[in-house]
Each structure stands twice: as C-alpha cells, then as structure tokens.
Amino acid sequence: MNEDSDFIPARFQKFFTEIPIVLKVALYVGIVLFLYGSLAQMLSIYFFWESRVLGYVLILCSVSIVAIVEFFIAIKVFDPFYREGWRTLFTLIFSGMFLGLQLLFAFSDSLEIAKREIESNAVIKSEVGQITGFGWITDGGSIKTSGNTLHSSTHAILTLIVKGENAFAFVTVELHEVDGEWESKIINE
Predict the structure, then answer these.
(1) What are 176-189's pLDDT values in tens digits?
(2) CA end-to-end span of the chain, whole Å?
(3) Segment (H or E) for 36
(4) Stretch 91-102: mean pLDDT
C-alpha cells in the first residue's frame, strides 16, 4: 500500500485519539444536541429547542480548543509537554466567554423590552398560542452601545425562542435606544 494514502487517515486517527475525554464527550453531546434540536424544529416537537444552539456551541468550542492548541504546538509557541494544561485553559476561556455573553443578554434592558414586544404582538400569539415562556439561551443577537457624556444609544438585534401553548417559534426583535427612550420592532413574525 502507498504510504501517502495512509498518511492522512493515520494522522487524523492520531489527532482524534489525543483529544481528552472531556472534549470528546463535549463533542459527542454537542452533535447529539444539535441533531435533536434541528430535528425537533423540523418535526415540530415542542421540547428543548435550545439544544440546537447549545450543541452548536459545544461542537464549535471542543473542535476549536483542540485545533488552537495543536496549531500553537505545531508552530512551536506551546510546549507539547503542557498540552493538557493549555486545553484546560482554553476550555475555561471558551466556557467563560459563552456564559458571560449569555449573562450579558440575560440581564440587559433590551432583552426585557424584546420580551414585552413579543408578548404584546397579536400575530405571534395567533401563531404559537398563549405565550408560556422564552428559551433560556438567546439564539443569536448583538448589542452595540455608543455614546458620549451628553448622549448614549444602543442598537440590539435579538433572536428568542418563544414558547407557546400550541407551538414554538424563533422571533427576531430589533431594538434602538437613544437617551433612555426605546423603540422596538419585530423583524420576523
């Protein structure tokens, strides 16, 4: 057999076997959650739609952590002896970033105003039924704040999972605040 044909699979196999068990579990759980979330949305199963976003984050983080550490080892920035320590450090950094962003959205004024806008929208209520809650993960979104000593403004786009008695739905709300006055509109109904 040709050595070149065995080079890529052997290298990939070595790469995969060197992934720590915690990251392998995160990768497998991420794949399962992502697939379930995608199927739940396609098949209108109204349970745990947040799993798609959570699965995507787990897949992205676990693959990124290994790739970043291996890249820095390959270009000789990190010593291979400290591989596990670097993976642990990057796992903590990625986890902290994800949790920090979720907390930023969870306690923001824009999220509360978006929820009120959705709850008062008759079109959404007719689609999902009486609104029973919202997803606990903000699925996509951005908040930009700018200002000076005299004026401030915030522009936010948030996508929320709206849970109703009859259905679930993704709803995107655009918000704009200037000097404490909020304007909001639902982008997709």
Answers:
(1) 887 778 888 888 75
(2) 59
(3) helix 21-42
(4) 83
| Whether 79 contacts 140, CB under 8 Å | no
CA atoms within 13 A on the CB side of 71: 6
Residue type, 32: V
Does 2 have pLDDT greater than 60? Answer: no
| Residue 17, amino acid | T
Distance of CA 42 to the CA centre of its chain: 19
Q: Which two tokens stand for residue 155?
A: 């522009």
pTM over 0.70: no
* Residue written as token pair 């596990």: 84
Under 8 Å between Cβ of 175 and 183: yes
User: Would you say how long the chain is, in residues?
Assistant: 189
CA separation, residue 32 to residues 26, 105, 130 (Å): 10, 26, 30
With H, G, I as helix, E, B as strand and everything else as coil, classify residue 107.
Answer: coil
d(CA 108, CA 86): 33
Counting Cβ atoms within 10 Å, is residue 173 exposed (0-12), middle (13-18) or buried (19+)? buried
pLDDT score of 108 more than 80: no
CA nearest to 185, candidates 112, 113, 128 = 113
Euclidean distance between CA atoms 52 and 36, whole angstroms: 7
Name the residue with higher pLDDT: 20 or 116.
116
